[in-house]
Amino acid sequence: MNYTENYRGIKIDVQAPQVDVPTGLQEQIRKSIDKLLRFTPVINAVDIYLNVSGQGKTAERILGMRVGIPGPDVFSEEKAKDRWNTMLRSVVDKNVRQLQKGK
Fold it and tell me: The domain spanning residue 8 has which CATH number?
């Protein structure tokens, strides 16, 4: 499932070719953007990639997030068997650390 949304003037592009994105995750993405806005004044776009690698018990979830800001974008990725919301929080925290460093 892929979808694009405009939230507070920020283009959100979610690409999830093998995953149905739950409504709760969509709301969590918006809350994550609110958190990122505390650390940077301008976000132009947020691209989120959701994928599942493998099958059954060996399946691994992959979540990547690119935050488009003036200057170099920040990107982080998480691979785990956790829930999507847990992985999203981890990725957002990684991006916050990059924003704080000024990358």
Answer: 3.30.160.100
